[in-house]
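User: Please check token order:
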Amino acid sequence: MSERITFLPWLRGGLGQSLGERDTGQTSTARGAELTAEVLLENADDPATRVITLKSPDQAASIDVTQIARRYPAPGVADAEFGYFPHVEFVAPGLPWVLSPFTADEAAQASGSTGKLRPWLVLVCVEEAASTFFTRATAPVEQLTVDAGLLPDIAECWAWAHVQAPAGADIVELAARRSGQVISRLVAPRQLLPNRAYKCALVNAWRREGDTLVPAWDAGGGMVTLDVFDSWRFTTGQVGSFEELCERLGPVPAGRLTLGVNPMDVSHLGLFDVDGVEEGQTVDFTGALLDEDVPIEVLEPDQATDYVTQITDMVNQGTSRRVIAPKDPDPVVAPPLYGSWSTGLDTLPGEGWMTALNQRLRRRAAAGLGAQIIRENQDRFMALAWDQVGQLREVNRELSRIRSQAEQGRSWKTKAAQLPDFGVLGLLRPQATFARTKLGQPLRVALAQSALPGGALSPAFTRMMRPSGVAAKTLRGVGMRVQAPGQEIPFVDRAGWRDTMAKDVTSGKMRTGQPRKPVGMQTHDYRRDMANGATAPDPGTIPDILEPISLDPGISVSDAAALTLDAIRPIKTAKDRMLGRAPALQAFIADSPDSVLPPKITTGPVIDEALMWLLMEKSRDLLSPGITDFPNNAVRLLDADAGFVAAFMAGANHEFTRELLWREFPADLGFTSFQRFWDRPDTSVVDIAPIDQWVIKDTLKNQGKAGGETAVLLIRGDLIRQYPNVRIYLKEPDIEDTPGTVHFPSFAGTISPDIRFLGFDVADREAITDPPSDDKTWSIVIEEQPTEPRFGLDLDGPEVLKTYSELSWIHTADPKAAWLQVSDQDAIADNEYLSEEATWGLNGAHMAFATWQQPFRRVFRATDLLREPSP
């Protein structure tokens, strides 16, 4: 076994750990234990003290039965094995000791044990004929009246309570987070007899006498009445072991039963009649599980042609929308066109899965079943959907806010682009930190390394040069004359002056800290030179003050402005901000263009539920017709019909989309909400892909294989009824020195009380049922759950006892005793072989190991259980 477990004698938390009185076997104690707690107050030198009185076990009125994880034998079993002790398991590992009035006896032991601690609960098992269970009007709980001589020695109740945990695990951490891996257990060490009716009862181990707590009953006998917190009954049979139940299994005789096929009447189809179909004519309906290569009865060719023509016309009418005049005949309410929501098609294609889904009778019936399941559970499914839409609405509100910010940013960018290049650089100076040149250098660094004065992009200079500034208003009229001899008098308008000043600044002619008038406002005075006798200059030699200039790193002002504007991406920034807050939206908005932000997110709700349980709840025979007639203690290998699964899921999703639309759910109508039919342990494995991804021309059967090829092992027997959690798997044959591959179930299900089916991802079914040779035979392995151990003594054993696994009743002081007594077992306690494994009578953990029955594994040749014998 791969799983290893460990036993502890007790587990306790809270204030009960501080009790001062040790459990040394005393027969009484004070009813209420008092503890003195010290509390240190802030800014106080001396701690405050307070006396706390703990509740005593006799004050318990009931327990939460949901804390009971398992009862063995299972309640109501009619033929329980009589070779094992009854027991009960609790989810809360400290429950049996939470009200114990003592602390553990932690005296040093040679074995290093932590000592004994009596629980406050005891499990007893009595014959129904020798006891009376009743409920009084004055008592809120069930009560048991029985002779104390028929009960176990209550002084030894510490021996039959223990904790189970995974070996090597951090038990304290696992227990604190209630992982389910650490449990507690109470055992009733009763020697059961065959063909007897028993009742187990969970009772209080303590009762009150005045202000004292004493054990609930005396070993000397006498009638006692005990409060019962939980009880269940069972009846033993003739079988004494797990091994015997395994040996009862075998194949079904050939020709005895066909599974998965059931006749379906097609003589009355409702909206139309098929030519040639007689009264009572049937075709075969097939379920999700069926025998391999079973013949399927269908319509005759002529009947099928007429049916296909009529059903195609009918479903195509249902998707058309036309205006109805007052005198027009009533429109036909057509059957649904399954798959239309996901594919967007309003008429049947000529071939493919959608055509097969809507035209084939058994596939359309499976889709109708899926739709019916949704209708019957629509309120619950819609409640789950609305629970999810709350988050979707919050996302859409945030998306609306982000869109508003993005639109404002885009409008602002548009206005900024209307400014001249130098104005863009001045206004968007902070953005230069994020913009990059072609060489990947930050634009701000490139500008700093250029000849551009540092103050040219300063906020003060940008403010001074803004269009509505004082300088611009001053120059709004006619500018100063700039005239050379022989030239017309130009006028410098507002835009021209601004560009001229920008050119002057970037050319280095105007520097920060050296204020001067721009060249465009005052040029060289040629008239003064001519008055002094100079020759008039050639007009062509006068420099053009509007000539484009470049920055030192090889990037122009216009390029820098363009880079700065390009770095402003309002939509992309909004997307990044949205994904930062909600990474799950990656699939919805990340793939859209940077210039597009969706107005809202629409998606369908995800219902992560295996629909096979709802189908079985409606009728077990709908899952596999004839399965309830499968004989007892029989095994068969079936096929999982992927076509049925695909049709059923398509019908379920189609109907749910209609329900979402009717209730105005903000959903994507093409979304596939249900993808799981089988109950798989790995919930990430689905049975169908999203329907909008199905290839139209592909077959319907291929759409139901998303979880893999599947062979299904069907078992019905006493073994399943007794051990509903029995572990079953397949193993391939060994090849030379290489062990064969082990195949664990990919899904499983139980039809109460004794039918279980297990799906295996195995494509070659014939390799299991018909191997080419004996050395290539597969195995079917059946084993007990290692984490669900049983306790007891063998009915027979060897004369010389060398290991606890061989311990039997014949090794005890009284082999016919009703209860196993821990004391007076000198032969066992003094056995030197056994002392190497555990110490008899040391504490509950050692007694659990001593009576633990090793898990059993039975390996069958697959052909022995699956090859049908000749009739």
User: Anything to note?
Assistant: The mean pLDDT is 80.
